[in-house]
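Support reply, case 0932

Customer input (verbatim):
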Amino acid sequence: MSETWDEDGDPWIVKGVTRAFENDWFGIDAHDVIRPDGRPGQYGVIRVRRLAVGVLPIEADGRVHMVGQWRFPLGRYSWEMPEGGGEPGEDAHDCAIRELAEETGVRAQTLLKVLEMDLSNSLTDEKAVIFIATDLAPGDAEPEATEVLRHRTAHFRDVLARVADGRIRDSLTVAAVLRAHHMAVTGQLPPLLAEEMLRQGD
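Our regenerated output:
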């Protein structure tokens, strides 16, 4: 057991790389490697082309905008915050504004970057950036053709409860809600907003 946060060097030796599959969203690279134990092997890595971006929109009264949709890879319905993939080269802030407007119609005057994440880091190099959006104004949603979305609001305490009991499982949403709660209780959000977010039900 280590008592420090020291980091070790790369124990893998890469002998060659072959692109096994590629589409508009990701590629799969097959690496011929020498493993840390000295034995030869192969390591497949999914190289994702787009940055994952999520935005947690919180109204002044503590309500959170949530989006529900069927997630094809999981084969089930998922309630989550507005999310999407940035176009190659697109700024994460601009992507968050676009996805929020597309999926909910909401426009945000204030957007705060609160987290950067590595997703499923044993399989993929996919990265994510998470924002909290405040000072919100309503508008008309414009979802993509592949998206059949429900949009609702729920008080932050209810969203937090659904994260805690596993009804909300989307990783970006879970991380965003827990980060927002931490910011509210540690004074990193505007006091009135934090008070509303942490207010218990009647």
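We compared this against your earlier run and they match. Two observations from our side: The radius of gyration is 20 Å. The beta strands are 13-22, 26-34, 40-48, 52-57, 63-71, 76-80, 83-85, 107-118, 127-137, 150-155. Please reopen the case if you see a mismatch on your end.
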